[in-house]
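User: Can you help me understand a structure? I only have the sequence.
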Amino acid sequence: MIALATGEGLPDAYIGFGTSSIFSHSNLQKYGESGAVIPLDDLIEQYGENLKSVWDELGEYSIRQHMTSSDGHIYYMPGLSASLITRYIRQVMWVNKGWLEALDIAVPETTEEFRDMLHAFKTGDPNGNGLADEIPLAGTEDHYGKQVYDYLFNAFIYNKPKNDHFMLENGSVDYAPVRDEWRDALLYMHGLYQDGLLSPLSFTQNNQQHIQLANDPRDLLGAFTSPGITYTVLQNSPEILARYVGIGPLAGPDGKKNASVNVPLPNPYAVITSACEHPAEVFKLFDLMLSEEASLRGRYGEQGVDWELAGEGEISIYGTPATIRVINQLRNNPQNKHLNQIGPYISRPWFTNVTWDGSETDGEYMNAQAAMLYREHEPDEYIGELIFSGTEKEHILDIRTDIETYVRQSIIDFITGDRDIASDSEWAAYVREIENMGLSALLKTAQAAFERMKGG
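Assistant: Let's start by predicting it. Here is the structure, written out as tokens:
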């Protein structure tokens, strides 16, 4: 933005930009160093009652550490949503339960059972039209969380693509794509592709085409991944939502199940500029918006009118005791009750324990039920998303980008057979290329960032 770059024509504050790249952590530090936005450290110390309370209340999210720039200052007020749904459903496999019932197949628990299910989908005419038109499994490269291999890799090795495939072992950061277990996962995926169980569309179709396939009235798709069912099947299509059920993580060769964990990060949702004549007053408003009362109002509206506390015995969408009963659903509907979380807010985990209305095709209910299948399968060690400091980021950005691009293309090449995953020399060449790109430097930098984030 021109105003931020030049420091001219600045408003008192900016709110509501969330994950906009303009207000990324690194850019905010630049704006702070140039004097366009002000550091909030002293204001937090004097007036940040709610923010400091959130830091303590949600300690596992390391909010303060993530908010702190590499120069030691805090330049923004956060927005963050914490729930079981946001924690677990970035990689969920949704399976056509009508096909399971038609073929009398149980929900798969292992990778071998999953393969057998796909074979049955391909050959058993589960949609009952007498045609061999079933597509057992398909994804898309066009949307995060919708490429099926990311989910299936977790049966072999912990895989979190949003975190550069970093994994943690005995406190040390490692890189999953160079491990033997990753190769085993690729061998499994190549087998699915070779047997016609994984559709080639997975590497060519865009997200809209994928959505059309999942919603096809001819009932053509057996399984897909989606970070929330309504990212792929529309909420106003209950008859199609009823086709699918979310399944939990699969057990791989070692019998272990891995749930990919998404620890949400605080994102910049408000800054105060150097043009503000009354920064303390503006900050107090932002801090108030982080209070439990204000955050509840910003999520659900007016208590007693739009929502109320759930009564004893009411059951939530998770199947647990409910905490909130929604009276008037404002979310994603036109309304003038609140800012719809476009300013600072903290959605606490208990906020989403809303009373279930009994609809089995409600998207939030389906997501919540899927999330419950993952909560007991967190790995003993995992890494939240790492934030590299300014100097680290400048040094490592090209390495990260080059390695990730190479790994993604290699996944496709190995699965489709353009490269031979069964060849020891081909695998060695792949690993060597990643090492030559600077893997050692990447891991060293990641380890330093991890130690800093945990306070080491």
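Now, to help you interpret it: The chain has 18 helices and eleven strands. Residues 165 and 177 are 7 Å apart (CA to CA). Let me know which part you'd like to focus on.
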